[in-house]
């Protein structure tokens, strides 16, 4: 019987490689553009607890410690190449504390 390969991802907070199912995905939704290709609405950053939302993703351990480390080091801004408002971090922190 062939062993199935387990996908690994790197946590944005602690930097450890872990199986994908043990991590939470943080996703930046795609920008919404008009017919001319101009951006009409920026994609929002949120937690993706199902791992199925479309967009650019970064991974995070299920701990507030890793979330705080990633936030402090600016790793989400670097991964998504955009500035993230403090309100978004507050919402993500509340969702993560409920999930933890």
Would you summarize the structure shown here?
The chain is built from three helices and seven strands. It is an alpha+beta fold.
Please explain how this structure is put together.
The protein has 100 residues and is of the alpha+beta class. It has a single domain, classed as Hypothetical Cytosolic Protein, Chain: A. 30% of the residues lie in helices and 25% in strands. The chain contains three helices and seven strands. It has a three-stranded antiparallel beta sheet with strand order 6-3-7. Strand 4 and strand 5 form a beta hairpin. 19% of the residues are buried.
How far apart the termini lie comes to 36 Å
The shape, in one word, is: globular
- Could you give me the name of the CATH homologous superfamily? YlxR-like
CATH class: Alpha Beta
Number of distinct helices: 3
Helix content: 25-40%
Q: Which keywords apply here?
A:
three-stranded antiparallel beta sheet, two-stranded antiparallel ribbon, 25% strand, globular, 100 residues, single chain, Hypothetical Cytosolic Protein, Chain: A, alpha+beta
List the helices and strands and how they pair.
Blueprint lengths: L7 E3 L6 E3 L4 E5 L3 E2 L5 E3 L3 E4 L7 E5 L3 H10 L1 H6 L5 H14 L1
